[in-house]
Design goal:
single chain; alpha/beta; Rossmann fold; 13 helices
Length: 328
């Protein structure tokens, strides 16, 4: 896992080459919405893109993690099918449920049944390098989606922002901070907060902490949590004392949201063991998203070391899949 995290910048560069070489057929109908279907690490890339493209994507962008697609899917939908393995049960089911509605389909996968279906049905597809745990292949997934959206005229140029993001990852040197954050999480329950523009990386931190460190974690966003979850910061007092709050902050956050974070910091401090504020590096939104992503991956790795856990296997997920197979 350490080598995979360390090599993430190289993966991003390879992903750019793959995206630049990708070709797409013209849609038969005007695109009115984009829907990404996928689960786990394969769906996460869509969260980054939804955050980054929110201010410029000319149509709604949705993500579904289920067995069926929503009723609005039509011939005017750009359907991005994201499954690193190509064999994700739920994603295959969603694709099958979408096919009668004749959306414009683009598949992103390293192989499996997804690529077989793409070739059989003449869908556009991008084949990724295989052999990675899906959660470590996020760079491939995220960057392909940028190229897909740009190709269909839904976002503008992103190359400069992406170049900054690659540089931030390749020159990452905040290991002391990552160690310190992991140490503060050790034997505690991490509760992660961010603004909506950075919710994708809160999700990433939560998922990586859970999968790599085998450590429960939770996340929410401000200002939404100010209207509900904030009231819960009182009981059960004993559990709250064993929590550590991590607030991911950016100079791009809405000014009012930043004030809310300042006020909530004092509230959390009354109940949590610690409140840790983490500030983004980088100038562009995409650069900051990738900085947070990479920092969080290192935090999860160092927390796995503290927990004396191997970050690679996910045995309980393998167990679940084995039990599900008995009910096929």
């Amino acid at each position: 896992m350490k080598d995979l995290i360390k090599g993430f910048g190289g993966q991003m560069k390879e992903a750019v080459s793959i995206g630049e070489s990708a070709s797409f057929s013209a849609p038969e109908h005007e695109i009115h919405n984009v829907l990404l279907i996928g689960l786990g690490g394969s769906a996460f890339g869509g969260e980054i893109i939804r955050n980054y493209a929110a201010s410029q994507c000319t149509v709604p962008f949705g993500i579904v993690r289920d067995y069926k697609v929503p009723g609005y899917v039509s011939e005017h939908t750009l359907l991005i099918v994201s499954s690193y393995s190509g064999n994700t049960e739920e994603t295959l089911s969603m694709l099958a449920s979408a096919m009668p509605h004749n959306p414009k389909v683009v598949c992103v996968s390293s192989g499996g049944q997804i690529l077989e279906m793409a070739r059989k049905n003449g869908y556009d597809h991008i084949e990724l390098p295989g052999g990675y745990p899906p959660r470590t292949a996020a760079g491939y997934s995220i960057i392909q989606q940028l190229f897909i959206l740009k190709n269909f005229g839904l976002i503008g140029a992103f190359e400069q922002d992406l170049a900054e993001a690659i540089s931030l990852v390749e020159h990452f040197d905040d290991h002391d901070d990552a160690h310190l954050i992991a140490e503060q999480m050790f034997n505690k329950i991490p509760v992660l907060y961010s603004s909506p523009d950075f919710e994708s990386v809160s999700i990433r931190w939560r998922q990586q902490i859970q999968e790599n460190a085998k450590h429960i974690a939770f996340h929410h966003v401000m200002p939404e949590m100010n209207h509900n979850e904030l009231v819960g910061w009182k009981n059960p007092a004993g559990l709250l004392e064993d929590s550590v709050v991590v607030v991911l902050r950016s100079d791009l956050d809405n000014e009012r949201t930043a004030i809310r974070m300042d006020i909530c910091r004092d509230i959390f401090s009354e109940y949590a063991d610690a409140v840790v504020e983490v500030n983004a590096s980088g100038k562009s939104h995409l650069g900051q998203l990738f900085y947070f992503l990479h920092l969080g991956d290192w935090v999860s790795y160092y927390l796995a070391e503290l927990n004396e856990e191997d970050p690679m296997p996910v045995k309980v997920i393998d167990l679940l899949k084995g039990e599900l197979a008995k009910h096929a």
